[in-house]
Amino acid sequence: MGMVEEQLSLADLHTEMALTTGERHFTLERPLFTSAGSHIWLASEISKKERRRGKACLLVLSPLLFEHNRHTAAIEAQIALQEDWHHANVVQIQAVARDPAGWHFAILEATEGASLKSMISKHHFKPELAKAVMKSTASILHSLHSKRILHLDLSPHSILITRDYQLKLLNTSYQYSIFQTLHEGQASAPAHPDNDSWPSLRYLAPELLQTPASPSPAADIFSLGCLCYELLMGEPLFKSTERFPLPDIPSLHTNQWKALNRLLALAPEERPTRQLNELIDDIFTPREGPPAHPLTTERPIAKAKRFDRRRILMLAGATLSGLAIINFLIYLVLHKSPHQQEMADLTEQIEQLLQNPQSEADLRKAQQLFDQFYQKASGQSGSRKLEDNITAFFMKLHNPALQAPADISPGKLPAPKAASPNRLRAGDSFTDALANGMRGPLLMVIPSGSAYIGNQDRRGSSDELAPHFVSYSAPFALMQDEVTFEDYDLFAKATGRLLPDDNGWGRGRRPVINVSWYDANAYAIWLSNISRHVYRLPTEEEWEYSARANTSTAYWWGGAIDKGHGNCQSCGSEWDNLRTAPVGAFPANNYGLFDVSGNVSEWVGDCYTEGSVAASGSTDAQNQQCMSRVIKGGSWRSPPALLRSSARQQAEPDNRNSETGFRLLREISDQEQYAAP
């Protein structure tokens, strides 16, 4: 390493400083995150070749990390790993670079906004808003862990709320590698961390502070518990790296303390693997026994800064797990209007009906009240974003079954398992044993509950179903992937059917194409017979309920098409308008389902009827004779509008083409459902 590099220091970084790599030239504007090991700066990019100016974020690494070449290689390899995967709520790394002056840095996607830490320091979080943020963070962690990715640096500093209402995680996996390199050779981390030098140290799990460290998904769960405490109390739980015993907090109610203790368990294997949303509810909802001192986290009015409307809305985010509700919560909790009390009364009535509906009449009443709420809120709001997302409140905010599953096994990632009595619950994945000695396709358990589906934003075609309420009293399972050639060919060979054409694109893990509705139904009957369980095509309502996964936006990830989420006519993928992609090539939705938007359209059970009323929400539709059947999800050749969750197409049931495949629903018996102790 040369003398120039030895003289470099992160303290030298400043506004208007230039960094260069190849043809790309950056000018630093302001820091977003600082630690002893790296700084993240918002920068403007000037391309002299294309004469344009854009934005980017730069992760600049401390020169102290590069005293040995092996450190350089290890850290840059860790960062480079993220170039191969994408998550809508993780700040994406685009490239690893080096400046001629000796600076090592990574180029991140442009992200502007405020950190959760800055918001905590300026504003008291109401319980409902804090719960929504934490549940959504848990959902993002669940998605990362399902891809075998650990965050390991979760703190208020690494959670960003962007100006376009997105929640984004910084420092995913690589920041902890930087921490390990800086402290290699030391027996332990500093006992009294400086928040400015290493902001996340107070939130690290105890097993990450040991030598050797033992990273696992459970470490992220511990950090989530620290975040919950800070949102609840307004200050960090730990003042040093000493983790146990936990400090006595007499102001917490019994249920709150029990829930926090589960997330903050000393042993990683004792941290909860399921029901994180229920624990988050408990942490922010005092229920059991009066505290020793009344719990209050209100800040003095004189110290609370007043938020204007733009800054209030900037708090909101719409993530894979339903962050759309935050827009509504901020509006409800903070927005002042002449009709606020009337809105609050309507909200309370809706909540009471949806908490424990006793009959179909209760659900119809809730829908009527919600329609009133929607009209009044839309009339008062100047924000189109609020109007788009306000229907998300209708999804029973306090019913954990409707939240995105955040069930993570500590120490190891969840593995598919065979179905067994009293074990299946929302978020589980499993396979069925088949009579031929093999195992069936991977299935995801879809939670029971209620949801608002259909053309909610009124921007779809007139043919889409009108917004309406659906409710399922029991969970069911859906194939995680569209049926592949690999799966379908087993059926075809076993029953003497002709193998469907793959158009020369390949078989294996690509979704099966050139299959009719009758072919799909025959596959379901065959799979039911050799598994001794009921498989069938889902109804249109079941399909949309599962594809939306507790979201109210046009697509499960948000209100607009976004590169990296699907394969369609113009989705930005390498397969666009050319051919199918292998299943699972894009992120799963919040219920763990891949390719519900794009790749191949999917047959469902219903007969097609023109207009905005479903022909039937009943499984009996599969036994009816129809001129056409409904197709959902859009394909590799479809315009983005057909990838909307509520979009629908139709085809004659004997039609076979290169754009249409299917996935099956598997019914779950009462004996297989999880029985709470």
Automatic annotation (TrEMBL):
<feature type="region of interest" description="Disordered">
    <location>
        <begin position="405"/>
        <end position="424"/>
    </location>
</feature>
<feature type="transmembrane region" description="Helical">
    <location>
        <begin position="312"/>
        <end position="334"/>
    </location>
</feature>
<dbReference type="Pfam" id="PF03781">
    <property type="entry name" value="FGE-sulfatase"/>
</dbReference>
<keyword id="KW-1133">Transmembrane helix</keyword>
<dbReference type="GO" id="GO:0004672">
    <property type="term" value="F:protein kinase activity"/>
</dbReference>
<dbReference type="GO" id="GO:0120147">
    <property type="term" value="F:formylglycine-generating oxidase activity"/>
</dbReference>
<feature type="domain" description="Protein kinase">
    <location>
        <begin position="1"/>
        <end position="296"/>
    </location>
</feature>
<keyword id="KW-0812">Transmembrane</keyword>
<dbReference type="InterPro" id="IPR011009">
    <property type="entry name" value="Kinase-like_dom_sf"/>
</dbReference>
<dbReference type="Pfam" id="PF00069">
    <property type="entry name" value="Pkinase"/>
</dbReference>
<dbReference type="InterPro" id="IPR000719">
    <property type="entry name" value="Prot_kinase_dom"/>
</dbReference>
<keyword id="KW-0472">Membrane</keyword>
<dbReference type="InterPro" id="IPR005532">
    <property type="entry name" value="SUMF_dom"/>
</dbReference>
<dbReference type="InterPro" id="IPR016187">
    <property type="entry name" value="CTDL_fold"/>
</dbReference>
<dbReference type="InterPro" id="IPR051043">
    <property type="entry name" value="Sulfatase_Mod_Factor_Kinase"/>
</dbReference>
<feature type="region of interest" description="Disordered">
    <location>
        <begin position="637"/>
        <end position="677"/>
    </location>
</feature>
<dbReference type="InterPro" id="IPR042095">
    <property type="entry name" value="SUMF_sf"/>
</dbReference>
<protein>
    <recommendedName>
        <fullName>Protein kinase domain-containing protein</fullName>
    </recommendedName>
</protein>
<dbReference type="GO" id="GO:0005524">
    <property type="term" value="F:ATP binding"/>
</dbReference>
